[in-house]
Every structure is written in C-alpha cells, then in structure tokens.
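From the methods appendix. Each design record in this collection lists the tokenized structure first, followed by the designed amino acid sequence. Records were kept in a plain field format so they could be parsed without special tools. The example shown here is representative of the layout used throughout.

RECORD:
FOLD TOKENS (142 positions):
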C-alpha cells in the first residue's frame, strides 16, 4: 500500500482510499477524465422526511435518503441535475472541472429543495411553493 498526500489537507493517506479519512475530500480521478461529484443530504429532522430523487443528465437516477450521500462519477463539462420530491423540483446546471461536493436539504420555510456547495451555472426551483405547503409538511420548522 502506497501513501499519497491529500491535496486538500496535506495528510498522508492510502492510495487505495476513495475519500481522505482526515478531511473527507474525494480523491481525484483526473487521469480518467472523470470526477467524483458527492451529493450529501444534510441532516435534518422532520416528522415527514421524504426521499429526494436525483436525475443526472435526464437518464441516470439516484435516490437520496435522509442522512445519506451518493457519489456520481461525471466527465468534465456541463451536466444537468434535477432534484425532486413530490411536486418539488430543483434543477441545477453544473460545470464539472474537479471533484465537487454538493449539499442538499429541504428549506424549512418554503419546502423547496435547496442545493448548494458547487459552482452554480444556473438553478431553478419549481413550482414556487408557498409557506403554507412547507408548514404542512415540516412540523416544527425553525
Ligand atoms: Zn485530506
């Protein structure tokens, strides 16, 4: 087992690792022209905490359970991700140039799916959801 240096935190880690155990950064796969996009569902406590479906480039579907993350290998360039749960849908267009982390959570006030932590090209939420619907789904709120 060889040791390599994590480019993020500088700690020596196994070259077999997929994620730095020290800082959590995914290791680069640039020799294959592919990067790891790690999508993490932020920890939130709700009585109702539905799954979020992630559709990448209109064909590849992933399910994001609560308190979980998925790794999506993507080639360099533009990709589309749609995060949906029931009638809530957030579409993001991303430009992949490196390994990246994306954080996803429900907005407690509006019920919309908030997506952040990446280089945004554009993002649209649909439909525009009133606070009433969010309040009905998410007991407790802020
Ligand atoms: Zn590290």
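DESIGN:
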């Amino acid at each position: 087992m060889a040791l390599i240096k994590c480019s993020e935190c500088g700690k020596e880690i196994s070259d077999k690792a997929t994620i730095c155990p020290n800082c959590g950064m995914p290791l680069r796969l640039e020799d294959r022209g592919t990067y790891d996009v790690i999508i993490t569902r932020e920890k939130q406590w709700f009585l109702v905490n539905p799954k979020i479906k992630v559709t990448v480039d209109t064909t590849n579907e992933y399910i994001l359970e609560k308190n979980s993350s998925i790794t999506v290998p993507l080639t360099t360039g533009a990709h589309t991700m749609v995060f949906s749960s029931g009638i809530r849908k957030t579409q993001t267009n991303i430009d992949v140039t490196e390994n990246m982390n994306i954080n996803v959570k429900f907005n407690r006030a509006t019920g919309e799916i908030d997506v952040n932590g990446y280089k945004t090209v554009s993002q649209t939420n649909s439909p525009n959801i009133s606070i009433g619907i969010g309040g009905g789904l998410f007991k407790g709120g802020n």
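APPENDIX NOTE: The two ends are 48 Å apart (CA to CA).
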